[in-house]
Amino acid sequence: MVSIQPQTDFVGVEDGMERLWTPHRMAYIDSHQQAEEPGCPFCVSPGKSDEDGLIVHRGEHAFVVLNLFPYNPGHLLVCPYRHVADYTELTEEEVGEVADLTRAAMRVVRVVSSPGGFNIGMNQGAVAGAGVAAHLHQHIVPRWAGDANFFPIIAQTKSIPQLLADTRSMLATAWVDRPGD
After folding, report:
1. Which of 49, 8, 24 has the alpha carbon at shortest distance from 164?
2. What is the pTM of this model?
3. 75 near 131, Cβ under 8 Å?
4. Where are the alpha helices (DSSP H) in the chain?
5. Domain range for 82
6. How far apart are CA 177 and CA 82, in angstroms?
7. pLDDT value at position 62?
Protein backbone atom coordinates (compact mmCIF):
# COMPACT_ATOMS: atom_id res chain seq x y z
CA MET A 1 0.00 0.00 0.00
CA VAL A 2 1.32 3.45 -0.96
CA SER A 3 1.22 6.22 1.60
CA ILE A 4 0.78 9.78 0.33
CA GLN A 5 2.04 12.65 2.44
CA PRO A 6 0.02 15.86 2.53
CA GLN A 7 1.48 18.77 0.55
CA THR A 8 1.72 20.87 3.69
CA ASP A 9 4.41 18.52 5.03
CA PHE A 10 6.83 19.92 2.42
CA VAL A 11 6.46 23.65 3.03
CA GLY A 12 9.92 25.16 3.53
CA VAL A 13 11.78 22.08 2.25
CA GLU A 14 14.56 23.04 -0.20
CA ASP A 15 14.39 21.21 -3.52
CA GLY A 16 17.70 22.45 -4.98
CA MET A 17 16.07 24.20 -7.94
CA GLU A 18 16.85 27.77 -8.99
CA ARG A 19 13.88 29.74 -10.27
CA LEU A 20 13.64 32.59 -12.72
CA TRP A 21 10.30 34.25 -11.97
CA THR A 22 8.72 35.64 -15.13
CA PRO A 23 5.02 36.23 -14.42
CA HIS A 24 4.69 38.43 -17.51
CA ARG A 25 5.11 35.28 -19.64
CA MET A 26 1.61 34.15 -18.58
CA ALA A 27 0.17 36.31 -21.36
CA TYR A 28 2.13 34.18 -23.87
CA ILE A 29 1.20 30.92 -22.14
CA ASP A 30 -2.47 31.85 -21.92
CA SER A 31 -2.54 32.83 -25.59
CA HIS A 32 -1.46 29.31 -26.52
CA GLN A 33 -4.20 27.72 -24.39
CA GLN A 34 -6.74 29.07 -26.85
CA ALA A 35 -7.31 27.40 -30.19
CA GLU A 36 -4.98 28.62 -32.91
CA GLU A 37 -6.69 30.94 -35.38
CA PRO A 38 -6.96 29.42 -38.83
CA GLY A 39 -5.31 31.20 -41.70
CA CYS A 40 -2.36 33.48 -42.23
CA PRO A 41 -1.56 35.65 -39.18
CA PHE A 42 -0.75 38.61 -41.46
CA CYS A 43 -4.14 38.30 -43.18
CA VAL A 44 -6.01 37.86 -39.87
CA SER A 45 -4.31 40.71 -37.97
CA PRO A 46 -5.76 43.65 -39.98
CA GLY A 47 -9.28 42.40 -39.21
CA LYS A 48 -8.69 42.91 -35.48
CA SER A 49 -8.43 46.10 -33.47
CA ASP A 50 -4.98 47.64 -33.53
CA GLU A 51 -4.43 46.57 -29.92
CA ASP A 52 -5.50 42.95 -30.46
CA GLY A 53 -3.68 42.66 -33.77
CA LEU A 54 -0.53 44.41 -32.42
CA ILE A 55 -0.78 46.85 -35.33
CA VAL A 56 1.26 50.01 -34.95
CA HIS A 57 0.24 51.73 -38.20
CA ARG A 58 -2.06 51.06 -41.15
CA GLY A 59 -1.24 52.31 -44.61
CA GLU A 60 -3.14 52.01 -47.89
CA HIS A 61 -1.28 48.94 -49.24
CA ALA A 62 0.69 47.74 -46.22
CA PHE A 63 0.71 47.87 -42.43
CA VAL A 64 3.21 47.77 -39.57
CA VAL A 65 2.78 45.17 -36.84
CA LEU A 66 4.81 44.05 -33.85
CA ASN A 67 6.47 40.67 -34.16
CA LEU A 68 4.66 38.30 -31.79
CA PHE A 69 7.98 36.57 -31.08
CA PRO A 70 10.43 39.52 -31.08
CA TYR A 71 14.21 39.33 -31.13
CA ASN A 72 14.28 42.70 -29.32
CA PRO A 73 11.70 45.17 -28.00
CA GLY A 74 10.23 47.13 -30.91
CA HIS A 75 10.81 44.33 -33.47
CA LEU A 76 8.41 45.38 -36.24
CA LEU A 77 7.16 43.76 -39.42
CA VAL A 78 6.01 45.64 -42.50
CA CYS A 79 3.45 43.54 -44.40
CA PRO A 80 1.43 44.15 -47.53
CA TYR A 81 -2.29 43.56 -46.98
CA ARG A 82 -2.30 41.36 -50.07
CA HIS A 83 -1.31 37.73 -49.43
CA VAL A 84 1.82 37.31 -51.58
CA ALA A 85 4.91 35.28 -50.79
CA ASP A 86 7.63 36.86 -52.89
CA TYR A 87 8.97 40.40 -53.18
CA THR A 88 8.76 40.18 -56.97
CA GLU A 89 4.97 39.72 -56.69
CA LEU A 90 4.43 43.17 -55.14
CA THR A 91 2.94 45.97 -57.22
CA GLU A 92 4.90 49.21 -57.57
CA GLU A 93 2.53 50.86 -55.09
CA GLU A 94 3.13 48.08 -52.54
CA VAL A 95 6.91 48.23 -52.99
CA GLY A 96 6.83 52.00 -52.45
CA GLU A 97 4.68 51.81 -49.36
CA VAL A 98 6.70 48.95 -47.81
CA ALA A 99 9.83 51.08 -48.31
CA ASP A 100 8.19 54.23 -46.92
CA LEU A 101 6.78 52.38 -43.90
CA THR A 102 10.17 50.82 -43.21
CA ARG A 103 11.81 54.25 -43.12
CA ALA A 104 9.02 55.70 -40.98
CA ALA A 105 9.22 52.72 -38.59
CA MET A 106 12.95 53.30 -38.14
CA ARG A 107 12.31 56.96 -37.32
CA VAL A 108 9.58 56.10 -34.80
CA VAL A 109 11.68 53.42 -33.07
CA ARG A 110 14.57 55.90 -32.83
CA VAL A 111 12.29 58.44 -31.11
CA VAL A 112 10.83 55.86 -28.71
CA SER A 113 13.88 53.81 -27.74
CA SER A 114 17.10 55.23 -29.26
CA PRO A 115 18.62 52.05 -30.71
CA GLY A 116 22.20 52.10 -31.90
CA GLY A 117 21.27 50.42 -35.19
CA PHE A 118 18.85 48.11 -36.99
CA ASN A 119 18.75 44.76 -38.72
CA ILE A 120 16.36 45.03 -41.68
CA GLY A 121 15.48 42.24 -44.05
CA MET A 122 13.17 39.67 -45.56
CA ASN A 123 13.45 35.91 -45.44
CA GLN A 124 12.06 34.69 -48.75
CA GLY A 125 10.90 31.08 -48.44
CA ALA A 126 10.96 28.53 -45.62
CA VAL A 127 14.53 27.42 -46.43
CA ALA A 128 15.64 31.04 -46.00
CA GLY A 129 14.18 31.16 -42.50
CA ALA A 130 10.74 32.64 -43.13
CA GLY A 131 8.46 31.62 -40.26
CA VAL A 132 5.44 32.61 -42.36
CA ALA A 133 6.72 31.94 -45.85
CA ALA A 134 3.38 32.40 -47.64
CA HIS A 135 2.99 36.11 -46.72
CA LEU A 136 5.85 38.49 -47.38
CA HIS A 137 6.99 40.59 -44.43
CA GLN A 138 10.00 42.77 -43.78
CA HIS A 139 11.67 42.67 -40.37
CA ILE A 140 12.86 45.84 -38.65
CA VAL A 141 14.85 44.82 -35.57
CA PRO A 142 16.26 47.58 -33.35
CA ARG A 143 19.70 46.81 -31.92
CA TRP A 144 21.67 48.16 -28.98
CA ALA A 145 25.26 47.54 -27.93
CA GLY A 146 25.14 44.61 -25.53
CA ASP A 147 21.56 43.57 -26.39
CA ALA A 148 22.61 39.95 -26.74
CA ASN A 149 23.48 37.78 -23.77
CA PHE A 150 24.05 34.13 -22.92
CA PHE A 151 20.36 33.17 -22.47
CA PRO A 152 19.62 32.38 -26.15
CA ILE A 153 22.77 30.30 -26.40
CA ILE A 154 22.59 28.15 -23.30
CA ALA A 155 18.91 28.28 -22.38
CA GLN A 156 17.15 28.85 -25.73
CA THR A 157 15.52 31.82 -24.00
CA LYS A 158 15.32 35.44 -25.10
CA SER A 159 14.80 38.00 -22.37
CA ILE A 160 12.44 40.75 -23.56
CA PRO A 161 12.18 43.51 -20.95
CA GLN A 162 8.94 45.04 -22.24
CA LEU A 163 5.41 43.69 -22.75
CA LEU A 164 4.15 43.68 -26.34
CA ALA A 165 1.06 45.75 -25.49
CA ASP A 166 3.23 48.44 -23.88
CA THR A 167 5.62 48.48 -26.85
CA ARG A 168 2.75 48.71 -29.34
CA SER A 169 1.14 51.57 -27.43
CA MET A 170 4.36 53.61 -27.27
CA LEU A 171 5.16 53.06 -30.96
CA ALA A 172 1.60 53.77 -32.15
CA THR A 173 1.48 56.98 -30.11
CA ALA A 174 4.85 58.10 -31.45
CA TRP A 175 3.79 57.22 -35.02
CA VAL A 176 1.06 59.83 -34.88
CA ASP A 177 3.64 62.43 -33.86
CA ARG A 178 6.51 61.03 -35.93
CA PRO A 179 9.21 63.22 -37.39
CA GLY A 180 8.73 64.29 -41.02
CA ASP A 181 9.64 61.87 -43.81
Report:
1. 24
2. 0.73
3. no
4. 26-33, 41-44, 50-53, 92-113, 151-154, 164-176
5. 41-176
6. 27
7. 98
